[in-house]
Design brief:
heterodimer, A: 535 residues, alpha/beta, five-stranded parallel sheet, 21 helices, 12 strands, 7% strand, B: 130 residues, Rossmann fold, globular
């Protein structure tokens, strides 16, 4: 009887959130031979997609930020550029995300609340005024109406005389995850995917340096999925977009290297690290073996892995500062390319400036004081981590097979199968926390009576909202309305004839057709998504 | 008791409302969930059509005051007089303000699922006595 077996009779079993049982001790016998020959920067990239990783340059810090008006966004861009930064993650308000103009009744009370409002190209012209688009990379956090906003960014670049061949930037544009979590869907599932493929096809052919899609496991996990499902569903989604692009005659090597991923970090430290290392190996194998990609960089699991709100608590909120520091450490030990952290007050409000600065400092301390950048994949070769990495590769693959059995991800989302399984798990986890089976410090253990402090809450700026509406009405009067009508008819015809919609939408936004007008035309052709109700 | 749960406004965060729907169903209630992005008019129509006894609204985008006021107006316009409650990402300091707008209860950020279930159980007991 080994030490492990002997002691196991006296200790309680431990299970990860993914259901994997953890042994009290791991040895060389638990690790597959595969890892011995694996090197960072070489296929299958388990240990990292670059050979020198952070020794060459540390992970990028990219915090999500929302500014209510295009004018404020422009100020922020100038501030960042003057301070040596070169990127911004742009948040949009909910009407823009749902494809509604500011004067739509359904937008009432929501204008500029969770991000920037965009009605027409004029708003982009204000937001990017006096900014060199070659010097800044803009990440558009937009999904349901993404095709219009990407078209607007391209229209802006063309109008200002840039060669779009060199235009860089990214868009979230992952509509399949919106049906599972986050909820800014507009059209039926198959039509929604068609629009994503349109952007991939257009970018592959015209803007090769632009990353049109960032596949998000993040929101799927935030909605209740376990770490295995987070990776499995994200990979199924990425495969669905890849299949769509290939059907249009695009070679896998023309776009796979522009695909990136957005993942979530909270929960057990080693489970998260293994999920990323195992996931990285599996994704490389999928792209090489199933899709026959020739280029190594097509096989890269390029990712932003950030500390998620799902692990934070409203109780004893300062504890979230500590949690976030661990999440940052996990992210770096997992070999992420980009990092973002939810701020400690994010469990109950839009982050205050102070809290957002603390998140930034947390990541900077990790880079500059902890030696995290000195050596590549410092956990490589750990019996436990390698064993769990192997296990995750296998389990993610199994979970992906289940989705195939449900008829593939598009079908599984359309029928609500995925949503049902994810929301059931959210319920089990939440009740586990509330009944004390899942420990959360300050919430269900080591609790104390807390004084209720008023929350610094972002007030709705009605004046700014009304100004936006006035601006919209003015542009609707001053633009060439006959031209806009014709261009919207072209969008309609292209949608009816299953053409790629990017060229006609770019043409329409250049003449100041609004986001709402274009989305409305597409709704009339495609219909709207009917949410299957599962809980 | 039949409960209508809904997500008014454009906010798509539905984990909480679905967790609550599960919990209420497990506690023996009949639950109708409307899905996302419903207007006050759509919610009140669904409440009337489904003959529910109580309405629960989940709001996480910070629009709770505006939406609560509009729901109240539409309820009055439709002469619907049933209990209704509001929950979600609502700061404790806003609870009093919201209660003045008319809902029977407000569940701010950090409310335990069991507290909400107990509230509905008490409401159901009171209804049965009447």
């Amino acid at each position: 009887m080994s030490i492990t077996e002997k002691s196991k009779t006296t200790i309680k079993p431990v299970y990860l959130e993914s259901g994997i049982e953890v042994e009290p001790l791991y040895t060389q016998k638990d690790v597959s031979k595969e890892i011995e020959n694996e090197v960072p920067g070489q296929y299958p990239f388990t240990r990292g997609i670059h050979s020198l990783m952070y020794r060459n340059s540390p992970f990028t810090i990219r915090q999500y930020a929302g500014f209510a008006t295009p004018e404020e966004t422009n100020e922020r861009f100038h501030f960042l550029l003057n301070n040596g930064q070169s990127g911004l993650n742009v948040a949009f308000d909910l009407p823009t995300q749902c494809g509604l103009d500011s004067d739509d009744q359904r937008a009432f009370g929501e204008i500029g609340r969770v991000g920037m409002t965009i009605d027409t190209l004029e708003d982009f012209e204000i937001a990017f005024k006096n900014i060199d688009l070659n010097k800044i990379t803009v990440s558009l956090t937009i999904n349901g109406s993404a095709i219009v906003l990407i078209a607007m960014y391209i229209a802006l670049a063309e109008k200002w005389g840039y060669d779009i061949k060199n235009l860089r930037g990214t868009a979230q544009n992952d509509i399949l995850k919106e049906f599972i979590g986050r909820g800014t869907w507009i059209f039926p599932v198959d039509k929604s995917v068609k629009l994503v493929i349109d952007t991939i096809e257009y970018c592959a052919k015209n803007i090769p340096k632009y990353s049109p899609v960032s596949v998000c496991g993040y929101h799927i996990r935030e909605s209740g999925a376990n770490p295995i499902q987070e990776m499995a569903y994200a990979f199924c989604i990425a495969k669905a977009y890849s299949d769509g692009a290939i059907q249009r005659g695009i070679d896998i090597d023309e776009f796979a290297s522009r695909l990136s991923f957005n993942f979530d970090i909270y929960g057990n430290m080693f489970e998260q690290i293994a999920k990323f290392r195992g996931g990285r190996r599996l994704w490389a194998k999928i792209i090489r073996e199933e899709y026959k990609a020739k280029n190594d960089n097509s096989c890269w699991l390029r990712m932003i892995a950030g500390g998620g709100g799902g692990g934070l608590t409203k109780e004893q909120p300062e504890n979230n500062i500590i949690r976030s520091a661990y999440y940052a450490l996990i992210s770096a030990l997992s070999g992420t390319q980009t990092m973002a952290l939810c701020s400690y007050d994010e469990a109950y409000t839009i982050p205050t400036e102070k809290a957002a600065e603390l998140s930034l400092r947390t990541m900077q301390i990790l880079i500059h004081e902890m030696g995290i950048c000195d050596t590549v994949d410092p956990l490589g070769g750990s019996y436990y981590v390698e064993s769990l990495t192997d296990r995750f590769e296998k389990e993610i693959k199994e979970e992906m097979k289940k989705v195939d059995e449900w008829g593939g991800i598009i079908n599984a989302v359309a029928t609500g199968k995925i949503q049902e399984s994810v929301s059931k798990q959210a319920y089990i986890r939440e009740m586990g926390i509330q009944r004390g089976d899942v420990a959360k410090v300050g919430l269900n253990i080591y609790t104390k009576e807390e004084e209720v402090k008023p929350v610094d809450f972002h007030q709705y700026n009605e004046k700014a909202a009304n100004k936006q509406i006035t601006k919209l009405h003015a542009i609707k009067k001053s633009r060439n309305n006959d031209e806009v009508k014709d261009l919207l008819t072209t969008v309609r015809n292209d949608a009816q004839n299953a053409q790629n919609l990017m060229p006609s939408i770019i043409a329409a936004v250049k003449e100041y057709a609004t986001v709402g007008e274009i989305i409305q035309v597409l709704k009339e052709v495609y219909g709207e998504y009917k949410e299957p109700i599962f809980f | 008791m039949k409960i209508l749960l809904s997500k008014p406004g454009l906010d798509g965060h539905d984990v909480g409302v679905k967790v609550l729907a599960h919990a209420l169903k497990d506690a023996g209630f009949e639950v109708v969930y409307t899905g996302l992005r419903k207007s006050p008019e759509e919610i009140i129509k669904m409440a009337i059509d489904n003959k529910v006894d109580v309405i629960g609204l989940s709001i996480l985008s910070g629009t709770h005051a505006i939406i609560t006021q509009r729901i109240k107006d539409v309820m009055i316009a439709n002469k619907l007089h049933i209990p209704w409650v509001v929950g979600g990402n609502i700061p404790t300091q806003d609870v009093e303000t919201l209660l003045k707008l008319g809902p029977n209860a407000v569940f701010p950020t950090g409310t335990k699922v069991d507290e909400v279930v107990s509230y509905f159980k008490n409401l159901s007991a009171t209804n049965n006595k009447q």
